[in-house]
Description:
Elements: H1 10-26, H2 34-49, E1 55-60, E2 76-77, E3 84-93, H3 95-100, E4 106-113, E5 125-131, H4 145-156, E6 164-168, H5 174-183, E7 186-190, H6 194-201, E8 210-216, H7 217-230, E9 233-238, H8 243-252, E10 260-261, H9 262-265, E11 271-277, E12 288-290, E13 293-302, E14 307-316, H10 317-320
Parallel strand pairs: 1-3, 6-7, 6-8
Antiparallel strand pairs: 1-2, 3-4, 4-11, 5-8, 5-9, 9-10, 11-13, 12-13, 13-14
Helix pairs in contact: 1-2, 6-7
Amino acid sequence: MSSLAPDRNLALELARVTEAAALAAARRQGRGDKEAVDQAAVDAMRAMLATLEIDGVVVIGEGEKDAAPMLANGEPIGSGKGPLVDVAVDPVDGTRLTAEGGPGALAVLALAERGTMYAPGRLVYMDKIAVGEESAGVIDLDAPVEENLRRVARATGKGVDDLTAIILDRPRNRPHIEAVRRVGARIRLIRDGDISAAIAAATEGSGIDILLGIGGSPEAVTAACALKCVGGGLQCRLWPRDETERQYAAEAGLDLRQVLTRDDLVRGGEVFFAATGVTPGELLDGVRYTPGGASTHTVVMRSRTGTVRYITAHHRFDRLSRVTDIYGAGSAGAPPPPVEGPVRRQRG
């Protein structure tokens, strides 16, 4: 992507894609159907991705953990013309949150130079620490949780008891939760959505100081793209669930002992990231429907410049429906008709 003109900020183009996915998914908010949420977002995102002037391939897709609808790893993305890019995509980070009407779900998309994104294959979990820029140089995944909290406290000028750690509420993370409680820091437990949690840990004023615990590997790579833009720190290690996954790692040449940094997960110097809120959360507001339309709240980032933009967009369904139905522009409150994705390009 070194040949890109300096003024071509692909993150702004990605915003249209994440907006479409968020609008389609939000129609299913609270209806209890996780698969319908994911399918609507995937269909909308795939249709919009086809309009981008990029030659992309999905390196980080969703679905391996639960056989959900997905943009598949290896799927070609874009027009086939333009910069060669790796693509990390999560049509909805928080499908269950959306289906149950919970907070903090996002539609997420990131691009980096071709061949620079880490591919964890079938190893779908990682142990993680994520922090803001001022703490990026002090964290150590091999150190105890208590020690990392003390280091972050010193780096931020806070007391340990003033820190807030965000952790996925899972049985596998009980040791992390208990360690945070022993040292006296505060905890915010979340059910899903560790991309937004990692970004919150790196965002000043979010109220979150550190992300801890075992979460998704695809989410780690996608979050690394955002943290590369804002300067946050991230350390991860692959976390196999069983002996079958350990054997897979050995056969695939994946080092289970290696601590992977943000720059290991996405090596390129030019990274673009966009996320649109599906349901209201700490990072972004969710889709809000109005008579005849909706509003969306999106963040776009670019690593080269460090620029972070927040975009509030207002969508008029009467006009959008003349050109597309992927925004959910049906009758008020009704789900949009299913959208067939475009025929995939074949490459030699």
